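User: tokens in, sequence out, please.
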């Protein structure tokens, strides 16, 4: 039988606060999937922007995050898929009253 990983996210959220928590890493193709809990008032990164050498896909499970790209911001709520192409500068900020819980996948280099 093939090995299958099953992750109970309810147990992972405490470890996902403050920094992304990688849950799955593959070398070929290069991929990282993890969970991230963004607390109310938290901005990622704290200042400026971040970027990845690979495409980022994130699914917002709960809460609302403000996504900043190219000087513009968008509010992104639950049950939303975000695609950020490789090399695009961006930030995420939780301006709401509840934590943002999301799953991210980076396809390619971080």
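Assistant: Sequence out:
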């Amino acid at each position: 039988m093939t090995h299958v990983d099953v992750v109970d996210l309810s147990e992972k959220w405490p470890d996902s606060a403050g920094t992304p928590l990688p849950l799955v890493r593959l070398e070929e193709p290069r991929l990282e999937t993890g969970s991230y809990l963004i607390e109310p008032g938290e901005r990622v990164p704290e200042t400026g922007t971040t970027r990845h050498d690979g495409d980022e896909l994130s699914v917002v499970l709960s809460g609302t995050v403000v996504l900043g790209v190219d000087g513009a911001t968008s509010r992104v709520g639950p049950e939303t898929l975000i695609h950020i192409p490789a090399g695009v500068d961006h930030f995420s900020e939780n301006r709401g009253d509840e934590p943002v819980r999301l799953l991210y996948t980076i396809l390619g280099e971080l």
